[in-house]
Prior knowledge:
Number of strands: 14
Structural class: alpha/beta
Strand order of the largest sheet: 1-14-13-2-3-7-6-12
CATH topology of the largest domain: Rossmann fold
CATH superfamily of the largest domain: Vaccinia Virus protein VP39
CATH class of the largest domain: Alpha Beta
Amino acid sequence: MLELNRIHCGDNCDLLGQMPRECVDLVVTSPPYDDLRTYGGHSWDFFGVAWQLKRVLKPGGVIVWVVADATKDGSETGSSMEQALHFKRLGLNLHDTMIFKQAGTGAKGSNLAYWQAWDYMFVLSNGTPKTVNRLADRANAKAGLLAASGKSQKVAAVGTRSERGERFVPEFSVRQNVWEFPAHDGEGTEHPAPFHLDLARDHIASWSNPGDLVLDPFSGSGTTAKAAKTLGRQFIGLEVNPEYCRIAEQRIAQEVLALA
């Protein structure tokens, strides 16, 4: 078993092979998108990584796979969806197809199409997810007002509010599956495409509990590891580029403040 709570430098397939079966609670990662960036010129084996992730994932464990497509010869590659479907062929569920939109990053894409403004966040699960902590931070305009069910509107207003199916509208509702975050704060930008810390943190909070093991097989500048440490999870990061390993180790060595 690889040592916990550190970044391991090397080929991710080789390192995953050193981990026992069904030991990981959650994977949060963003692999290189097609050939949009070179990441130091290192290549990777999608099919090998996918097989290994299925092997090390616990029953009920979750993989969050953040990807997008390049446009080549006038056509989007479609590799993102092909990867999601391959995970299904390995026996995982495509639990949710989520969208990540980062505000303030500028337009990208072709002048012959609408500007691309989002990436996929495929949430894959090994059976039914064993942990689901849905975040409720979507403000309700009618918070505090009395809401009635359709049934209670058709019958006489008798009995208690609970018996009539009435409730007060809460201040916040559960999020929808399109997540938008402010532009990246610039931390860790020695890496060409640093992962968004808020995105990693919110997925870790959603699909794991304190003490669970969170894995990132494309650790890059160590964002997933840093978020996991902040939230009281165990973590393992895998990264092939020694320079990115150095950046990641520096980031996760920073003191973590106690949560309020």
